[in-house]
Amino acid sequence: MRVNRRGFALAIFLMLMPIIALMAWTYLKVGSATRAQAVAEERKIRALQAAEAGVRRYLFTGETKEFEMNDCTVTVTTLDSSLIFRALPAGSRRSLSITLQTSQGYVVGRTTNEET
Fold first, then answer.
1. Where are the domains of the chain?
2. How far apart are CA 59 and CA 74, in angstroms?
3. What is the C-alpha separation between 21 and 15, in angstroms, rounded?
4. Phi and psi for 10 in degrees, rounded to 5?
5. What pLDDT shows up at residue 5?
6. How many other C-beta atoms are found inside a 10 Å radius of the C-beta of residue 95?
7. Most confident of the following: 47-51, 92-96, 105-109
8. Are 88 and 73 in contact (CB under 8 A)?
9. Cα(30)–Cα(44) distance, rounded to whole angstroms?
């Protein structure tokens, strides 16, 4: 019995088509998840840079005004013995804050937190 080569090639192609489609779908799903994670990490970096700029701005000017930088809104809050610099990236619910503990005008401690 002689097998038609075109028919054999078509049968192989049709058997491999679902496997190739599944591989492509998996590649696209993993790629989009990786991109989303990279965007989230980039937002955290921008928020940290903005909060650091808030620290430098406060130390230079002494102002506690709210300002925007790196697509983040930075607020400066003064308490009895601490300064809180909170940066909220645009389009995000998570903020990053830097807290400086002070004693007699000197910084004695520093913490960095990510808040929801």
1. 5-115
2. 15
3. 11
4. -65, -40
5. 85
6. 19
7. 47-51
8. yes
9. 21
Tokens describing residue 12 = 């192989």
Percent of the chain with pLDDT over 90: 21
Confidence band (pLDDT; 50, 70, 90) for 3?
low
Contact assessment for residue 83 and residue 58, using Cβ atoms and an 8 Å cutoff: yes
- Three-class secondary structure of residue 82 per DSSP: strand
Task: Tokens 């102002």: give the residue.
Answer: 63
- Percentages helix, strand, coil for the chain (3-state, rounded to 5) are 50, 30, 20
Is 70 a residue whose pLDDT tops 60? yes
Cα within 13 Å of Cα(35), Cβ side? 6
Task: Say what the pLDDT of residue 14 is.
Answer: 93
Range 96-104, long-range pairs (CB < 8 A, 24+ positions): 96/44, 96/47, 96/48, 96/51, 97/51, 98/51, 98/52, 98/54, 98/55, 100/55
